[in-house]
Design a protein that fits this description.
This protein has about 425 residues and is mainly alpha-helical. The protein has a single domain, classed as Na+/H+ antiporter like fold, CATH 1.20.1530.20. The protein has 19 helices and two strands. The chain has a two-stranded antiparallel ribbon. The C terminus is likely disordered.
Length: about 425
């Protein structure tokens, strides 16, 4: 089948299904999203009928990058509203940091052991001897490649979906400071997670191209952020004080395309570059709120397509590596509960808000899949481990995410207990 026909069919499918779910069963969007993930696996090269073969996926790689760029751009735009409360911002960043550290520490050894070639590196990130009996040496050892893979998985763990919070809150008429705090923490934590992914990508690029360009991790990071900032500035300059809707759409498409293209050219994540572009637009343009409204109808179709392509890029693993999704989901579940409590207690004095707040942040959604997909694009040889861990963890947690948020609101007295059950 022609790649062009497949591309058009997938595009139409994403828009039609997203619109249908939005009208018929808006409360089931989270569960149906996992269905798109599984559909991507069925359509991918792993199982018959293999509609999305490796060749087709390679041909659609640029389109996938633009999808990732659009997702990152929206995440950057939303930072403007999330950053209005300093305490909420700091709580969200600290919570995401603690979750990322917990998952990174929990999966580093497994990632290191998943690829024997990691042990053959001559320049590990660190090698700390612990004990020796004269014949065997026990040491903490981490190869650079294992570090980047670990950070990619951990970055996905820091993502919390605002869509689950919004759906449950709207369904039960819940408003107030608890919903606002959850939204702010999820938005800031997601942006922080994309930054961690960008650091991992930039670190890998600096290691691989160090001899050629002589640039450090910091210098690569500045270059990447600089391209995103340029895209945001170009958007602001092009639009000026115009209020025309068509001009607004054209400017946003141009900014996303430029940022995503820069991410591909630099061999780092389009998500990260586009996040910087969106944050720049949010801070410099008076049209950022209108832009969010204009782009909102495209978010769900883009999420459907990201989940579909993430499933198609998945590659099966073998042996004990199938335990990684379970370890990821369990570690993240407890880390989110503990980290959220610590972060909110550190920056806010309201004890009523602290109690059980982490239950509202367990859902992940399409952006976690986008991080895994972006990593698989850059590190195809590690796609199996990363996507199995991240997507498998999503399957285990997102089916319970809406119920977890409802129980949080019910226990807090925001909705009736019988209604939440």
């Amino acid at each position: 089948m022609s790649t062009s026909i497949i591309f058009v069919a997938i595009l139409v499918f994403g828009f039609l299904v997203a619109r249908g779910i939005g009208r018929i069963a808006p409360g089931r969007a989270g569960v149906s999203g996992l269905g798109f993930l599984l559909l991507g696996v069925v359509l991918g090269p792993v199982t018959p009928p293999r509609v999305l073969t490796v060749e087709v996926l390679d041909a659609l790689d640029l389109f996938v990058s633009i999808l990732l760029g659009f997702t990152g751009f929206l995440a950057g735009l939303r930072l403007r509203s999330a950053l209005r409360e300093f305490e909420h911002t700091m709580a969200g960043a600290l919570s995401a940091l603690l979750v990322i550290l917990a998952v990174a520490c929990g999966c580093a050894a497994a990632v290191q052991a998943s690829h024997p070639e990691f042990f053959r590196t001559t320049e590990p990130v660190f090698a700390m001897p612990i004990a020796s009996d004269g014949h065997w040496l026990l040491s903490l050892w981490l190869a650079p490649e294992a570090l980047w893979v670990t950070l990619g998985i951990a970055a996905a763990a820091g993502v919390s979906a605002t869509s689950v919070i919004t759906r449950v809150a709207n369904a039960h008429g819940v408003h107030g400071p608890r919903v606002g705090l959850l939204h702010a923490m999820a938005t800031v934590g997601t942006a922080f997670s994309v930054v961690v992914l960008g650091v991992a990508m930039a670190g890998s690029r600096a290691s691989a191209a160090g001899a050629e360009f002589g640039l450090t991790l910091t210098e690569w990071g500045i270059i990447v952020v600089g391209f995103g900032a340029v895209a945001g500035v170009l958007f602001t300059v092009y639009l000026g004080r115009e209020r025309d809707a068509m001009r607004l759409t054209v400017a946003s498409v141009g900014a996303v395309t430029f940022a995503a293209g820069a991410g591909v050219a630099l061999r780092v994540s389009p998500l990260f570059v586009s996040l910087a572009a969106g944050a720049m637009v949010a801070s410099t343009s008076t049209h950022s709120d209108r832009l969010q409204v204009a782009l909102q109808p495209l978010e769900h179709p883009a999420s459907v397509l990201i989940l579909l392509f993430a499933g198609a890029h998945w590659r099966p693993v073998s042996g004990w590596l199938w335990l990684l999704p379970v370890a990821y989901a369990v570690t993240r579940w407890f880390a989110v509960r503990v980290a959220t409590r610590l972060a909110v207690a550190t920056f806010l004095d309201d004890r009523a808000l602290v109690r059980g707040l982490g239950r509202g942040l367990v859902g992940q959604g399409a952006l976690a899949a986008a991080i895994g997909l972006g990593f698989a694009q850059r590190f195809g040889e590690y796609a199996g481990v990363v996507l199995t861990t991240v997507l498998g963890g999503m399957l285990l947690t997102d089916v319970l995410a809406a119920r977890s948020v409802r129980r949080l609101f019910a226990d807090a007295g925001d909705i009736h207990v019988r209604e939440a059950s």
